[in-house]
Automatic annotation (TrEMBL), chains A, B:
GO terms for MF: DNA binding
Entry-linked SUPFAM superfamilies: Winged helix' DNA-binding domain (SSF46785)
Domain HTH hxlR-type: 8-106
Domain of life: Bacteria
Signal peptide span: none
PROSITE patterns referenced in this protein's UniProt entry, alphabetically: HTH_HXLR (PS51118)
Full protein name: DNA-binding HxlR family transcriptional regulator
Entry keywords, A to Z: DNA-binding, Transcription, Transcription regulation
Pfam families in UniProt: HxlR
Coiled-coil stretches: none
InterPro entries reported in the protein's UniProt record: HTH_HxlR, WH-like_DNA-bd_sf, WH_DNA-bd_sf
Length: 143, 143
């Protein structure tokens, strides 16, 4: 196997989190564990196949953990691994810069950010709502 | 024109600095102004056409400035704009994480980082050498 060569260390970072989707997935995971159905709802333009592939690559690189709940019906969730959490400051900064950029370009972030729980002003409330939604989902799938 | 919609603000960031090359170009520019020939030397696998396109997009997004020196022969350099410099903490973190990742994967960053002035241990010396190299280049092009 030929040894990798990088001209600058950022190339190694981009090998792990580069591409159109990985940073988006990882930013969503900084808000908590997600099922693939959650991620598809949060990323309507990604295909199931592409999502699965990205998650597998992130898992192979040790960035996310795949948690399998042995229950009926079986449930799988993804979370940032301990190593994945080392990316959190970068992911937070990427989100913050994007918000700043949206405000610069459009004047108002709420005009272009889809109305979803992540973009609520009150993050505490969002997390709480997210939790409630998840509990409802679980309770529904039980019935 | 249909209005943009983002599901999460990081998508706006990736529109500006996403893709295979832009972060690499920008990281190089955090070390100082560069001519396209400098960038091609630092990024041997990028084509001239791709580099030109990436630089134009970064210029259109207000991230880099194109400086034209009206001299014979004419000289063009690229630098981070003031807005581009707002990405510096992110770019530095991406480089630092990559270095950390390389050490984790390979044990020694010097084994996989190409031997160029940017990767020297002594950054002060590197900058000085870069400056000397540039002066030599200028003096050569004058002769």
């Amino acid at each position: 196997m030929e040894k990798k060569k990088y001209n600058i260390s950022v190339e190694a970072t981009l090998e792990v989190i580069g591409g159109k989707w990985k940073c988006v997935i990882l930013c969503h995971l900084t808000h908590g564990k997600k099922r693939t159905s959650d991620l598809r709802r949060l990323m309507p333009s990604i295909t199931q196949k592409m999502l699965t592939q990205q998650l597998r690559e992130l898992e192979d690189d040790g960035i996310v953990n795949r948690i399998i709940y042995h229950q009926v019906p079986p449930k799988v969730e993804y979370e940032l691994s301990e190593y994945g959490w080392s990316l959190q400051p970068i992911l937070d900064s990427l989100c913050a810069w994007g918000e700043h950029h949206i405000i610069k370009e459009y004047g108002d972030k709420f005009a272009v950010l889809e109305d979803n729980i992540l973009n609520n002003k009150d993050i505490g409330l969002a997390t709480e709502m997210d939790q409630t939604a998840k509990e409802e989902e679980t309770s529904l799938s039980k019935n």
